[in-house]
Amino acid sequence: NHNHNHNHHFRHADSNASPPSSAVAKISHLKAVVLGDAPASEEDDVVLPSHDFSRQALVPSQQKYLEMYKASIENPAGFWSGIASSEFYWKQRWGDQVYSENLDVRRGNIKIEWFKGGITNVCHNCLDRNIDAGLADKIALYWESNEPGFDATLTYSQLLQRVCQLANYLKSVGVRKGDAVVVYLPMLMELPITMLACARIGAVHSVVFAGFSSESLAQRIVDCKPKVVITCNAVKRGPKTVFLKDIVDAALIDSANKGISVDVCLTYENQLALKREKTKWKEGRDIWWEDVVPKYPTSCDVEWVDAEDPLFLLYTSGSTGKPKGVLHTTGGYMVYTATTFKYAFDYKDSDVYWCTADCGWITGHSYVTYGPMLNGATVLLYEGAPSYPDPGRCWDIVDKYKVTIFYTAPTLVRSLMRDGDKYVTRYSRKSLRVLGSVGEPINPSAWRWFFNVVGGSRCPISDTWWQTETGGFMITPLPGAWPQKPGSATFPFFGVQPVIVDEKGVELDGECSGYLCVKSSWPGAFRTLYGDHERYETTYFKPFPGYYFTGDGCSRDKDGYHWLTGRVDDVINVSGHRIGTAEVESALVSHPQCAEAAVVGVEHQVKGQGIYAFVTPVEGISYSEELRKSLILTVRTQIGAFAAPDKIHWAPALPKTRSGKIMRRILRKIAARQLDELGDTSTLADPGVVDQLIKLADT
Ligand code: 6R9
What we know:
The chain contains 21 helices and 33 strands.
């Protein structure tokens, strides 16, 4: 099993090994099952695409993939400019250079530019261009409420009108090109509408996942200083009502105290969740969306921007406490998200596409809003909780809208798998054609369940590996082209050169395992961390000079398939949500009774990784159930419910080196109860601490 506990065997690359060679899969010796023939069993190493699927696929064979991949690597400028000019509208073409880059810190500042000098607009390409091409009356958005029975639709031309009204409103309150707009909305149609309206006028949206706490929201507001904050009064998630406006109110007080005051808080009245009379209100600052936006004209001129002008900021977790503002620009991101969407899901005009991710994460940016809309796709938005009112809801929705492409996270797959097949099989699901997975490695047993039970052994699974920073898919199967191995993200997308390096930064070839880096840029790459280019260089480009360092471990098997093995830094993936251990630690130590905290990730049956916190109370305070609860509450209120520790382990002291460094390696082993693998503890200042922690493990 390549997915877990693989041995690290390093082999060095010959210096002249050409990138496409490692992409050639030699699969003849493997035991295979053909898609649609029979269920994939434990013994099958690979699942081959059926002839029927391949025949209709955009990339119908490995040979075709290799041809295109080779072209993209040998001539990136030609490959990407061909796509950019034939599939998008540019007011003005880019200059002489399609791209310019420096990814090597030894040669000066890191710089990535694509299509510089090209003038375009992403909103125009999503809406106006598709409408001009005849999609005016095609459904752009289906919206399904948390409550079964409530839904809505917008065609491409209706969506454009809504976007223009909001764009005009934003202009009327002074939002100009380059201004930041913070968005704190749940999965309502108003969320993609807001993103597109910002893009239309050149404003930079920063969507904050509406599960973040007021403090996290305030931190982001203080960092990017928005002209306007857009939210709604409340939302239903499963049986619960979440009062989002209250959270925004608290965040705006908090940020005002830190010197950043926001003049306008545009609030959508989400009537299914809460009536406006019951919403707390600050006159002068707060404005009901429904009172103003519909009064504005339904057309709005596009603000033409440079390909390298910013499109959005999205904050993500790193290995230190302060979230990083990942900045994506216009042209490269547009070309890259659209192209990856099209190929990785084998997109057809007749598809109905559903991605369960929230627009508050990168997946929702690239593969709910931009990638699909640029392709003129019909996108389903689901407001609610996936298992509400019961674990069959997803398949109910699939049947109701005849969803053909279903893209989700392994954590949801595992939790639905636990609930049992009967919730799946009572629905037809025959519309499904392609499945997708993202957010963390998908374990082979969950892969097989997703493939066999959900997809009826008919649908290829695109296990897409990528990151907030990469903008779009980096390593992913192309359905129809690739024989699949359950649990492997397979091969690089066009134009992407993944390399696996050892701890010294030496590139490895053949069967190997190490740190995943990327050589050369791709159009969707992030360009900087907002306001902190130095941190951008230090975090991503200094660890292995000459490469972009992903923070992930990866192995490559003898057939050239890639197996992602999880983060190698202090970032954990909880239910596919990315969170830094340092962020959770700083929330814990802000508790007046917490002296010290160390947080590690631990394997979790459903969430992939769970959050495991070692906590030392301050002198004189003894650990209690009450303290445990209040520590968890502190994390929930400071970061958000998704970051709440699954386990608090009382630690009278933490294992530290003589220089005072916490030895997380030991804490990870204790958390995983791998007590015979603690390794050398002799360098600890006080080795007795370890025994003490083990004794307290199950209290
Ligand atoms: C898109 C997204 C990025 C981290 C990444 C990796 C993990 C994402 C994965 C995967 C294995 C996959 N990750 N997709 N690991 N297989 N298909 O999730 O972005 O929130 O920035 O997280 O997620 O560890 O480094 P983001």
